[in-house]
Fold this protein.
Amino acid sequence: MSTCTHLDQIEHVELPAEVAGCEECLASGDRWVHLRMCQTCGHIGCCDSSPNRHATAHFQSTGHPVVRSAEPGEDWSWCYADELMFRLRPG
Ligand SMILES: [Zn+2]
Ligand SMILES: [Zn+2]
Ligand SMILES: [Zn+2]
């Protein structure tokens, strides 16, 4: 069983009280499908089902490896570097 080796880069575990949307899409007037939060810096970006894939673009430009879902009721995390899905807290 593999484990994410980037847990020491996680600074943001909980979502902010209000998630307005993908930061880049809001700036450009584009649409998104689902939202992801960078767990290193708190950046909100859109998922790979969205036209602009800003969460992936954020990883590629910054190297911040771990995002979590910013969707209501979802608490899974995804490491781009390890290509691994996991939960930070069980349950
Ligand atoms: Zn990792
Ligand atoms: Zn976006
Ligand atoms: Zn980040």
About this structure: The longest helix spans residues 54-62. The pocket of zinc ion (ligand 1) is lined by residues 4-6, 65, 79, 81-82 (CB under 6 Å). The mean pLDDT is 95. The beta strands are 35-38, 44-46, 66-69, 76-79, 84-87.
